Structure prediction request, 220 residues.
Amino acid sequence: MEFSERLQELRKTNGLSQEQLAEKCNVTRQAVSKWESGLGYPEMEKVIQLCDILKVDLDYLMRGKLTSTKNETLKENMSVYKSFEGKWVKIYLNDREFQGIYRAAVVAVNSNYIIFEQKSKKGVLKTSDIRSISNLSIMPKRPESAETIVTREFSENCNPYEGFEGKICHIRLKCNSLFTSFQGYYDAEISSVSEDGIIIIQKGKETAVKTSDILMIIEN
Prediction:
């Protein structure tokens, strides 16, 4: 794997868009795009800064050599919620307005996102917004009536919002104030998806929403 591919993979593993990484490095988004496409390379000062931001050592970032300690840490970070895949859970979120989800089926997990189903509606949220997650005991009246959870593969490089493109959804935005009502958009169509955000249509009006502002998306 080349430096450009490794940089892109690490950025996505850390849940950062090109714009967010550029801000942390104090460079333009175009500069990060050039690094990831192999059209340019960062100066050594920026390389060291990238190591700190992406939580890897210099050898791995430049040459792909990973120490066993770093390897174990990355694996641990990527699989912390993996054990809940295929289970019914309750999820508490780090949000002032929306506390969480009481009953959801976890269908796919990677290091950045959890895809779940609630009342047969698909949803997605970031792992970084989760305060806690725990198993939920489901006790059906008859064993044969228990709902089966169908899990699926979820690549680290996958943009989960692409699965909602063209669908009518509820979109919750992050809220940091206690004295605020619902933040987001009800019954909005997600018309397009990019790495940095989504475009929604609600009552004929187009609105751009940054990925970093999204708390949760769930199908209507």
Observations:
- Residues 68-79 form the longest helix (12 residues).
- The first strand starts at residue 88 and ends at 93.
